[in-house]
Amino acid sequence: MTRWLSAAEQQTWQAFIKMRQRLDGAINAGLSEHGLSMADYELMVSLSAAPNGCLRAKDLGAEVRWDKSRLSKQLARMATRGLVDRVPAPDDARGIIVSLTEAGREVLRRAAPEHVELVRELFVDKLTEQEGAALRSLSAKVIEAADGICSPG
Length: 153
What we know:
Strand order of the largest sheet: 1-3-2
Largest sheet: 3 strands, antiparallel
Number of strands: 3
CATH architecture: Orthogonal Bundle
Helix content: 55-70%
Distance between the termini: 31 Å
Number of helices: 6
CATH topology: Arc Repressor Mutant, subunit A
Shape: globular
Strand content: 5-15%
């Protein structure tokens, strides 16, 4: 039997969707000033934080929870723009190692401060310390539940 959302639950869900849409739009607009998309930025941040600045494509896909096709297409677009390099893995003929190019690192260095300021202005600074803690707790619960249902690939 379907457990339909109550009016309050529906309002909560719709408020979350609207907030996410507005944040995504504003973040995309900010990154576009640097010629980046949110998808570009997400991958570039993961690569910049990786040991030695590179990751196997399959590990990068797992980290960002993207399927192989989406990741492959996005990396191809980024490689065409000179943001990333893709080279065969030395120990696996089918594996690909992805790394940021120097141009990619430079774009990320320029975009990151403005991106962080926008995230702070639109989101972080709007939360009290208690709201931040509550959101982290809620996020952990939702992530755990979602991870139990779907996995990348």
